[in-house]
Write a structure and sequence with these properties.
Two copies of one chain form a homodimer.
Chain A (H helix, E strand, L loop, with lengths): L8 E6 L10 H9 L2 E5 H4 L9 E5 L4 H13 L3 E6 L8 H11 L8 E4 L5 H9 E2 L5 E5 L7 H13 L3 E5 L9 H10 L7 E6 L7 E6 L12 E5 L5 E3 L8 E3 L12
Parallel strand pairs in A: 1-4, 1-5, 2-3, 2-4, 6-13, 7-8
Antiparallel strand pairs in A: 8-11, 9-10, 9-11, 12-13
Chain lengths: 262, 262
């Protein structure tokens, strides 16, 4: 009698934006069980160390290769966690794993693969200042190595003209350091200069920095790869607070009534 | 010497979409400390019972009154948790609390108020089927008691025309049971009939039901108040799987290259 190897599996998880206090218990349990972690080194570093667990750390720019590697390990019987920061479903590894399956070996469609939700960067950024995502909103990645820059600009200006709150991911890269400037030029053509802008860097981590400013005044030199930028809608409000307390920001749930009701 | 009462505080939290496995440790810790829970009864019911904690449960339609009640309790020295389902910052109580402060007593601006992120319904829905939110996306509430229906339809069709993935919250209500039908009529005018649609009901809860269908074929009678509807973009793909396994759905991270690369 031959002993069959245990079937492998692949679970796509997100650590949340930084502290373990934002990692779901489901994700923590998966990290405690997995034999192999596959992910960008900075995200794998957020996972509590565990004896015997193999960490396959990779560079930031190789999502599909990383996904294939995870699938190969699972197909070989390993218990794999593919690790994203934030929510794996929002500009992260879940889509890369699905794409790798779609284009990959037929046998991968039989694998036990699952995706597990987490807290994404825009949610932590929003919570840190109040409730800027409280109205209809969009999330747009400025990463132009995956889509034409014209598409990015068209989506941005369309969403801005329809008065969505907008969260921008991947606002800067080494390859295109000026794209956030170009994006803001496009936004300034369709939104008022006093539109609220939040520059939320590394929220929840030791190097957190929160700036509440406006479309006209935002200092875009402060935006880096760890920054989530949130642009309010036309009704987003700043609540000033006394004695040097940081202001709160929120987008009213209602449209067209915030002034009338004041 | 007078003993001053301890200062109160108010923390806005979200339970996640259902199971405790999706509630962050931060939120669980807040629930374990709070003297008072304020929230819609169905969400308060998700919080583990605790001796001595007072639960102020309310109806679904009184967000601002509920927020004011929480602020009054905090101003009186209580340790208040205002409880949302999902993420409190996404169509939930964080914006209501901020609005109540903005329109309320000046002293409330000195209160210790904070918002804590959670997993929202669309994220759980997306994870359950793969990665449909893997590209640029919008979240739109169909609740028309807070904004004119024309605004809802304009945002929907604008976002659809710009090829965003779209997550719809509050797709049905007793007051307007036909609005999801009207929304789909508008979407069908700008998107192809074979656009992928996901009807994700009560994800993570015992009565979960997941349907992967298309814009042409979606049975909207199955949509209720517990359903999150996700409409794919023009490149969202369904991965068929063998032997009766449920299909996976994902939106490629790249634009305009998914066919070329196949």
């Amino acid at each position: 009698m031959t002993v069959r190897p245990p079937p492998g599996r692949l679970r796509v998880i997100g650590t949340g934006p930084g502290p373990l206090a934002w990692m779901t218990p489901e994700t923590a349990a998966i990290l405690a069980e997995a034999t192999d972690l596959v992910g960008y080194a900075a995200y794998v570093a957020r996972c509590p160390p565990r004896d015997g667990q193999i960490r396959h750390e990779s560079d930031n720019r190789v999502e599909i290769e990383r996904a294939r590697h995870g699938l190969e390990l699972a197909a070989a019987g390993r218990d794999v966690a593919v690790v994203s920061g934030g929510d794996p479903g929002v500009f992260a590894m879940a889509a890369a794993v699905m794409e790798a399956i779609d284009r990959g070996e037929a046998a991968w469609r039989r694998l036990d693969v699952s995706v597990h939700p987490g807290v994404s960067a825009m949610q932590a950024a929003a919570a840190a200042v109040g409730a800027p995502l409280g109205a209809d909103f969009c999330a747009i990645s400025l990463s132009d190595n995956l889509k034409p820059w014209e598409v990015v600009i068209r989506r941005l200006t369309t969403a801005a003209a329809a008065d969505f709150v907008i969260a921008l991911y991947n606002p800067k890269s080494l390859a295109r350091p000026r794209k956030i400037f170009e994006a803001f030029d496009a936004l300034r053509a369709v939104r008022a200069p006093d539109t609220v802008v939040i520059l939320a860097r590394a929220v929840g981590r030791p190097d957190q920095r929160l700036i509440v400013t406006t479309l006209a005044d935002a200092d875009l030199d402060l935006v880096d790869m760890a920054t989530c930028v949130i642009l309010g809608n036309s009704e987003t409000r700043v609540i000033a607070r006394p004695d040097g307390r940081a202001p709160w920001v929120y987008s009213p749930r209602s449209v067209g009534t915030s002034e009338g009701g004041r």
